[in-house]
Amino acid sequence: MTSYKELGLVNTKEMFAKAVKGGYAIPAYNFNNMEQLQSIIQACVETKSPVILQVSKGARDYANLNLLRNMAKGASEYAKELGYEIPIVLHLDHGDSFETCKECIDNGFSSVMIDGSHFPYDENVALTKKVVEYAHAHDVTVEGELGVLAGIEDDVVAEHSTYTQPDEVIDFVSKTGVDSLAISIGTSHGANKFKPEQCTRNADGILIPPPLRFDILEEIETKLPGFPIVLHGSSSVPQKYVKMIIEFGGKLKDSVGIPEEQLRLASKSAVCKINIDSDGRLAMTAMIRKTLAENPGEFDPRKYLGPARAELKKMYMDKNINVLGSAGKA
Ligand code: G3H
Ligand code: 13P
Ligand code: ZN
Question: Which pLDDT tens digit goes with each residue over 57-84?
C-alpha cells in the first residue's frame, strides 16, 4: 500500500474548491510516457498552474502501474527542482470497476474516476458509492459520471451521446457522495468529435461544430450550486496540427474539436476540470512527422521526441494561459 501523500501529491478537494470560486478550470492532461509527462510538468510549473495527471486503462496497460506511480513521484520532485511547487494530482481516468479503482488507490493515486455512466442508473449509483466509501477512507477523491459521451470511452463505445439529465444530479451526488461529476453536454472523445453533417463550414472551409449545451450546464449548476463539474472530451483539435500531420504524410479526415471559445466559457462556470488527451497526441505526432520528414537520416529518438516534447509544452502553456485560466493559480 502506497499513499499518494508519500509521493508528494494532493487530492482534488482544495484544488476544485479554489477553481470553482475563482472561475477557472484545472487542466487534466493524459500521459503515457516520459516526454508527455515532462512537457506537462514544465508547462504547468512555468505557468504556475495546478495540474491533474491522468492515467487511462490504456496507459496502465501500456506503461505499467508501478512505473506510472514512480513517474508521478518523480514529477512532483521535478517540479520542485524546476523552482516552483505546484499541486499535482494523480488521477485514474475512466475507471471501469471497483477493483481497478482500489488497485489505483492502493498504488498512490490521489483521485479516481469511476465511470458507471453506461450502466442503468441504480447500478451506477451502487458502484460509485462503493468506490467512494473505499476512496474516502484513504482520503482519495472520486469523480462520477452521469450521461454518456458519444465516441470511445476506453473500452466502452458509445454510438450516440445521452445528455446528462439535470433531474438526476442531486439524487446521484447525495446518494454516492462523489466529489465531482462528469457530465455530457455535447463533447465527445477523440479527434473526430462530430460528423461533417452535424457541422457548418466557415469561409475557409473549416468545419464548425454545434455549440455545447450550456443550457443543461446552467440547469445542473442551479441544482448543485458550487459543486465541481468535469468536462471530458475537451480537445480543441488544433487545425495547425491536423494540417502538419497531413502535410508530412499522415491521414486524418474530418477532424473536429471543441472550439476554444466554448472551453473558455465553460472554464468560467462550475466546470473546474477539463480533460485533454487527443490534442497532446496530435501535437506530438505532428512534430515527430515533421522532424523525421525533414531529417530522414535521423534515428536517435531524442532528436525527434525532443522537438515533440517542446511543442507539447508550448501547447499546454497556451491552454493554461489562454483557455482554462489556470495559469498563476498554483
Ligand atoms: O478518455 C479516453 C482517453 O483519451 C484515454 O484513451 O485508453 O487510448 O489511453 P486511451
Ligand atoms: P479528448 O479525446 O477530447 O482529448 O478527451 C480526453 C478525455 O476526456 C479523457 O478522459
Ligand atoms: Zn474522458
Answer: 999 999 999 999 999 999 999 999 999 9
Closest protein CA for atom 1 of ligand 1: 153
**Active-site residue 93, yes or no?**
yes
Query: Which atom in ligand 2 lies closest to the alpha carbon of residue 94?
Result: 10
Give pLDDT tens digits for 110-164: 999 999 999 999 999 999 999 999 999 999 999 999 998 876 554 555 566 789 9
For the chain, what are the domain ranges?
A: 4-324
Rounded CA gap, 255 and 200, in Å? 13
If you search the block for the grid coordinates 464548425, which residue do you land on? 208
- 4-324 maps to which CATH number? 3.20.20.70
231 CA to middle of ligand 3, Å? Answer: 8
